[in-house]
Amino acid sequence: MRLTLLEPRTLRLIAPLLLLAASTWGCQDPPSADNGSGDGDGDGDTSGDGDGDEGDESPQIICMPGETRCADLDTLEICEPTGLSWEQVPCEGYEQCDPTITNVEGETITVCAGPCEKLEGSSSSEGCSFFTTSMYQATLPFNVTEKPSDAIVVGNPQIDRDATVELRFVSYGSNKEEVVQGPVVIPPGEQHTFLLDPEITIYQGEQDTSLFRSGVVYHAVSDLPVVAYLHAPYEGQNSNGSTLLLPENVMQSDYVVYSHGAWQTPNYFTVIALHDETTVTWRPSVETAGNGWPLDFVEANDSGTQKLNRYDNIRIDTSIKYDRLKCEQDLSGTVVSADKPIWLVSAVRVLRLPWCGGVVPGCNDVADTSCNYGSDFAMEQNLPLDYWGQQYVGPASPVRGAEQHYWRVFAGDDDITINVTPPQPGTPIHLDARGDWQEIVVPTGTDLLFEGNGAFMPVQYVTGHHDNANDTGSPAMIQMVPTAQFLDRYVFSTGKNYTQHYVQVIRESGTADVMLDGATVTGWSPVGDWEIATVLIAEGPHEIQSTGSFGIVQYGYSDFISAEQNSAGYGYMGGMKAEVIFIP
């Protein structure tokens, strides 16, 4: 496991001791001879033999100065500068003495380490360090006069320990974190909402090209593993998008962007650098904007690059240079890679499904009223390719009326074939290269099982309230979790101010009961060798568990009343393991 958040107190103790050790050993007098007649201590007598027994009065070196070891789980011992004794240092808080921690040089060391330092041994969507930056939204709803706040919602999944969490901010042009909220103590099973500064959100007309920034980054930090969600904005309205946030320790270097046609251009993806001297490369599926300050315009299927330091971030937008139709400004399948781990979010500024009222077939260039304001912002923090799998269960989003269900299936590797159960028109799906994708549209309430011969990702695109959906809900974009990454327990949280919240539960047929807030989940429907249950839940935090592994997906809907009281919707995966099951 790699040390990520080693307690500074421990490092401050060890470093000076190592320096003292070097000086102590470097100043030792050379041994003197007694011409063969003495005891080896250089005094010319024969009263001692220098081996530390009763006949030798010399002090005994028992350890290497600065050396560390565990006295017990709660106590670290550090060898004194003299090498003659051990100093005992109590571990603090949730720390325990651990002889298996790996430092940044790759060396195994013994230190007092807490749960956050041990995360790499049990990686999942629970973590101690989460990032986000401002999103690029569409125009504010016409009846909204003040910018709403985005929010990071943090939940404590611990059974019996409080988590202490603080929110830090890196201001524009800076690389220094400052605490702006907290620390706050979150009891087990509870949550806390950190509201973000609404002024950092960028709306249409404020930027018209790709963006490079240093700073404008939020960083949520905990002393115990927690779960985190980003809501942009926080409360349900027709410009809402939401995603499960993945912790820093599971970030990797290879991604494929999810996107869709742009009702309001541009669509985009955003990258945050987590390390200095990080080079990011993208091969866009369509031209991306840039003016050379410093981001360049990039042709479709060409490559763009940008070097970033920690807290630098780039937003890569589709370009209007060639006057492409809105529905063609689609970044789906753009391949992004870096030489160090990065954070990446895919976003559609206005997702409209199905397209409606258009003059150009498949595209739309008329007023939003033609679709009864059925558009919405959509985003998803992308799973790195390392966690993509070969089997997924795709539950249809909770049925609202007679809506359709849209899916795009993305290739994580070359030459991938995906079988779909039950079979659908256009399946099996064959994808030639990483980033290739195919869309399928299925009837109301159709659950799917996806199985492939290599790494791939199915993404569901929820339709708007105008899609025969009883004027309920709005578009969202939701990546699925491979069955190989399911957990046996989740603590999750809903969005706020939606009229309906759901959790969909996925388990293998015939396996153990699943308990949601202490009640047994019922109402299972089969798909292949798997089962799905859709459960209406109350707003707020929840706990769900079983003796076997299972998956969950969360949704929320509100109703369309009028243009002033528009519909809203969100959806995201509820959690996952983060085991490397594919090498990009």
From TrEMBL:
Residues 242-556 form the IgGFc-binding protein N-terminal domain. Residues 1-28 form the signal peptide. It comes from the Bacteria. Keywords: Signal. Residues 29-61 are annotated as: Disordered. Residues 40-57 have a biased composition (Acidic residues). Coiled coil: none annotated. This is IgGFc-binding protein N-terminal domain-containing protein. It comes from Enhygromyxa salina.
